[in-house]
Structures are given as C-alpha cells and as structure tokens.
Design brief:
This protein has nine helices and five strands. The chain has helices at residues 24-40, 45-61, 96-102, 120-123, 159-171, 178-186, 193-196, 207-222, 237-246; strands at residues 87-92, 110-115, 138-143, 150-155, 197-202. It has a three-stranded antiparallel sheet with strand order 4-3-5, with helices on both faces. A two-stranded parallel sheet has the order 1-2.
Length: 247
C-alpha cells in the first residue's frame, strides 16, 4: 500500500504572501507545517518528491525564497521534556519597527508572540471615528420605521447625500431606490437621517467596499429582514462562519 497526501479539488495554494506586512513567524508557520507533514508521513520516493514539488510551487506562487530542503537530523542529546515555566508577551505587529523592539527580549527568558489587525472580523467591522459621520462614505443601513425591514447600500460620496437621494425618490414616487419603493408600495413613513440611517462601515469606493456591502446584506438576509434585490444575495460559507462566530 502506498501513502500520499490528498488535497481537495477546491484547494488553492494561497498562504500569507512573503511580501505581506505580517510577522515573519506567521509567514513561515505554514511553511514549517508543510515540511513537517512531509517528513512525518511514511512516503515512498515518488510520493515524497511529488509533495516536495507541490510545496515548492506554493512557496513560489507566494513569493517565498525557495531553498533546498534537508530532512531534519534527529538529536539524541536533546531533552524530551522541559518543565520550565515560560512567560509570554503579545505584541501587535505593525511592521519592522515591532521586530526591532522585540529583539530586545531575545536574551531574556520572556517569549514573544505576535498578532495582527488584518483579521476578517476587523476588516468587516468598524468603529465610529468621527462626530460628523454622515460626511464620510462607506456602507450604510436604512431601516423602515414601521416594519423595521432594512436596506443595505454603499456610497463613495457623503452618507447625507445618499440619504437625500433615497428621500427624493420617495417624494417623486420613483423606483430608482429599493428603499423608497418599499415605503411607497407599503404606504410606510420615512424618518430623519439620524433615526433611520445607521453607518455600518467607513471606507472609500472600491472592491473592498463591495465586499463589506455584500457581508452586511448577507447578515440581514440571514435574518430574513432585508429589502435588497434577492438576486444580489448568494451563498457564502465565509460570511456564515463569521456570523456563527459573532453569535
């Protein structure tokens, strides 16, 4: 019987790119895992070489320097257990400056770990950073005062400008706004901007803002409480996972 390493058809060779602003320890964690798995499985020569080629392709596609791989040499003199209590300190990685600072602790018994702010949860949420929030752009939510159904939208202009456009569409009995169309068809009332408009995320127009908008539409769709076009809503495993985690 021959043993090999299986990968799903949906497998992508994406890992943290070598050029990204992440701690070096995080970048090489996946690389160490791939090589450790290669050595821990009892692979015959052909399967071993095939997996090694896959690893090299992954490294190449993520801009890692590729060096000849040498199997680890067992060290019989290395102690198998360590009962020393270690102390750890966690730093938020912002770039090379963090590395320079943490290098100070190399000669101490304090162990260093890193975290980053570039997590999916942080990218899809926001903090209120201004008192004049309606003068910025990003993703917003409009809530019907009567039935409490919601509409998610995005704008590269000021939130206040987009709110006025929705209200103008309602006044003119226009269907250019899904939110206004709902108010017209149901005979529901509107409301002042600070009552019915909620800022979900601040950002400029672009692909990132599109993703944020889709996430919040997905959130309202999961509650069956949205006024957005159903054709814009598609299954998304990542969004579902985030919603479960946040709950």
């Amino acid at each position: 019987m021959r043993t090999g390493i299986f990968r799903k058809p949906t497998f992508t060779d994406t890992i943290i790119p070598f050029t990204s602003n992440h701690p070096t320890q995080h970048k090489y964690a996946t690389v160490r895992y791939l090589y450790n798995r290669l050595e821990s499985y009892n692979l015959q020569h052909n399967e071993y070489q095939q997996e090694l080629n896959v690893i090299h392709n992954i490294l190449h596609n993520n801009s890692f320097p590729i060096k000849p791989h040498k199997p680890p040499t067992p060290n019989p003199d290395k102690p198998t257990t360590n009962h020393t209590i270690q102390r750890w300190a966690n730093f938020t990685y912002i770039g090379r400056e963090t590395t320079y600072i943490t290098n100070i602790f190399k000669r101490t018994d304090l162990k260093i770990t890193f975290r980053t702010k570039q997590t999916i949860a942080n990218l899809l949420t926001h903090k209120d950073r201004t008192h004049d929030k309606y003068s910025l752009s990003g993703v917003y939510k409009l809530t019907c005062p009567d039935c409490h159904k919601t509409y998610i939208g995005q704008t590269g202009r000021q939130f206040s400008t987009r709110y006025k456009e929705h209200m103008t569409a309602r006044h003119n009995l226009s269907t250019t706004s899904s939110f206004a169309q709902h108010l017209i068809e149901e005979g529901h009332s509107s409301g002042p901007m600070n009552k019915i408009m909620e800022i979900m995320h601040y950002h400029n127009k672009g692909p990132y803002l599109n993703t944020i908008e889709r996430f919040h539409i997905h959130t309202e769709s999961a509650k069956n409480n949205h006024l957005n076009d159903p054709q814009t809503i598609h299954p998304n495993v990542i969004f579902d996972t985030l919603l479960k985690t946040n709950h």
